[in-house]
Amino acid sequence: MRSCFNRTVVTLALLSASVSASVSQGQIQTQPVEIIEAAPPAVFSERSGYWPTQEFSTDTLLQDSSTLNDRWNSVPGVQAREGGSPTLSIRGSAQADRVLKLFEGAALNMADGVGASDLLIPTEVMSQASILKGPASVFYGTSAMSGAVDHRLRYFERVAFKGALADDSGTFGTRSVGVIAPHISLSGSTRAQASLFHENRPGRFKFKSTTSDAEGRRSDNSTETTRATMAGDTQIGKWHLGARLVAATAEGENPGSLYFPFLSSFQNTGTLATVEASRSVGDSHLASLRVTNTRLEGNYDSGTPSESTSSVSRTALNADVRSILTEKILARSFLDVSFNTLSASYVGDRKFHLSDTEVGQSYEIALSSNLVLQPAYRYSSRYGQLFKAIGAVLSQNKFSEFITYGEGFRAPSLTDRYANYSTFQGNPSLKPERSTALEIGANFEQGRRFGSFLDGFAAKGSMYTIRFEDIVDTQANGSVFTKVNAGKAQTNGAEVSLAYGVKVWMFSYGYNYLDAKNKTANEPLRLAPEHQGVFTVAQLIGPALIEARKTWWSAFYDRDPLAGTLRSLPSWQTYDLTVRTLGLSDWEIKAGVMNLF
After folding, report:
1. In the prediction, which pLDDT does 333 show?
2. CATH code of the domain made up of 2-594
3. At a CB cut-off of 8 Å and minimum separation 6, what does 382 contact?
């Protein structure tokens, strides 16, 4: 099911001057100058071993949308769904837990198998998000079988206020407000920041089901979320120290599915705490250590004598050493250790544990002044799995070409293996899912950028193929469901993006073609649109930027919850209009209309 909007949604935000159009300057660099100067071509990202990624600033992602998931849907090859079963799908992956979400490099996916909780993603203080499309387990671990998304913190220079309003025909009728305290500079190398955010979603949004003829207004669907964050960084000699804390709670009601209405209430709480330290060693090494603890608690009351509860936690230690071996060879060695626990009513109130130790290395080898080779590997001691990746990039002036091969891996969740519920039984014999991907592409850009505005021409294109083995799917045995390894799947696709800017105008177009098939069942993969595109026109008028955008999907499928068969979904499209200032005295103003038609 997706929500269907028949009226417009208007959002308005007022922020202090610290919230500017260009927001990527707000992070303290933890690398010594020597390593920064040895940075590889821009098509590679730093955290992932310099693999191709796409970077999106907060303005690009959140300028006209009440949720981050809304904006992901306009990124070719990416689909996000917040209602029903939350999903973030990259190039046909379909299931939320096949994509790893991170905040400031700390993994948010837990052992319950439902994917990362948006409760712990503080979009109100985000600066940018980086997305890696395709298997990323070599760089991020076992949860990144189909890709990874890393959300980055933003430091505000002054006190900032954020507010948003949407009418009840919009995306869950969001009303939100947040206050971000200014960072406190105790010295030139120390800063800290705190924020408080509250959001109310009354629900009652209009909908039209894509798998049935049902339509109307969803009631008893309200949610209130409160979230606080704290962050701090300091530089002491060769040491960099940092800490992040996110604490959030959400409570509300759930009316159940359209086909099986069942009113219940819920209260979820979560915390994310991270401390990290890094130190330069000599002129050619940087060592870093991060310890993260993530915890989610849930209580569900359906009006029955027994209340359902769940508790899941993850403690992770990440050690990393980056080295300049020679003038032409950079190396990164890493050790990742994780401890997971799960206790819930749906696993018989038993407590389960899952731990893993992973080691690996990645290299950047300059074969010539414009050709770079990047091999990498990661080994999981628990599963005895070795993941490999290799990439090469050829850069010539403003043009670059790349080819990459990568492998992905996702271990069965504790829920999938040990669930003990009346309608769902675990399968302890589940095997891990695996993926391999090959991609070839090219990039070209000529001109200048002013924040997200381009004065010039840019073009990107790639072709890719991804194979999945031992994919996990749901199997019904009467009224009881379980997870099984359902065989093989494959996605083949092509992606292109074009941008042209001249004076005060900019035009951009992005398109993704995807052929996604379950090879064993000989049927299309669900929620994998064959065609996805976005067209944007932007104009600068004085201090204001006006942007109009059309986003569309077509030729995709979902499973009918009653018949159990795939059903073709109608084409989906939205028209959005945004007006925002790029700097107006001490204020920045944004106003937008989503789903204009």
Report:
1. 92
2. 2.40.170.20
3. 355, 356, 357, 411
